[in-house]
Design goal:
Elements: E1 2-8, E2 15-21, E3 41-43, H1 46-63, E4 69-74, H2 88-100, E5 121-123, E6 126-131, H3 134-147
Parallel strand pairs: 2-4
Antiparallel strand pairs: 1-2, 1-3, 5-6
Helix pairs in contact: 1-2
């Protein structure tokens, strides 16, 4: 999970749109009240979280042109750990690396929500496979049976 929030870090007063890896529990405590669309929400896909963070930064800057707005991404480990702002290239690389490391459905390739065991489907006969839905599990299993019927 990736939690997107606006932060005004103490004591330096830096304004940061923060993407916290791990969800709400791993966001820094200097969070401002949600004001812009998509803010204060968790995202499964880090690329989506980054897209939302960029939009929030743009809207925040438009609402107060004198502010210097950064976008930062990272993980606090449950503690207070302000994130350094990153440039667009660093953010794109971070989001892509995060995405590539996420568990994906073995049938459709969608990201699996590791924080919600009710949204993960496993077939006993195929314990190494994980699916995002019961439908994907069934399709995969029937294709598996069809392709391995001769053995």
């Amino acid at each position: 999970m990736y939690f997107v929030s606006r932060q005004k870090y103490w004591p330096d007063g830096r304004c940061v749109v923060e993407i916290a890896n791990g969800g709400l529990d791993y966001a820094n405590p200097d969070m401002l009240n949600p004001k812009f669309n998509g803010e204060g929400r968790e995202y499964i896909d880090p690329r989506e979280a980054l897209m939302v963070a960029r939009q929030i930064a743009k809207e925040w800057k438009n609402s107060n042109p004198k502010l210097e707005i950064e976008i930062g991404a990272g993980c606090t480990g449950g503690f207070t750990l302000p994130f350094d702002g990153k440039d667009n290239e660093e953010l794109d690389k971070w989001a892509e690396t995060q995405y590539n490391n996420l568990k994906k459905c073995d049938h459709c390739g969608d990201v699996i929500d590791n924080n919600n065991k009710n949204k993960q489907f496993i077939i006993q006969d195929l314990e190494d496979c994980v699916f995002c839905s019961e439908n994907c599990a069934e399709i995969y299993y029937y294709n598996y049976i069809e392709n391995n019927d001769d053995e």
